[in-house]
Amino acid sequence: MLKVEETILNPELLAKAFWNLDDSEQAEFFVKLHELLIDKNLIFESDSQWYYMGKKINENPKAKNMACRMLVYVFNHATDYLDRRIDV
Question: Is the pTM of the predicted complex or chain greater than 0.90?
């Protein structure tokens, strides 16, 4: 696990920190994000955040490429995609 001293967080630092986590820690990140949003009663408001973030990702080819490469696998596992396919 990457140890971070008190510092100002920015996208580059967050990306490096996330990449340095192993797969279990990366999955735990989403657990912690969920818990944070539940604790602050923001889980439903987060949908609008994801919507607007998606629009910004769509405007940037690098962000869009990386998000699609990562999230296709997350989506497939999280939704049991292969179990629902009718053409298998």
Answer: no
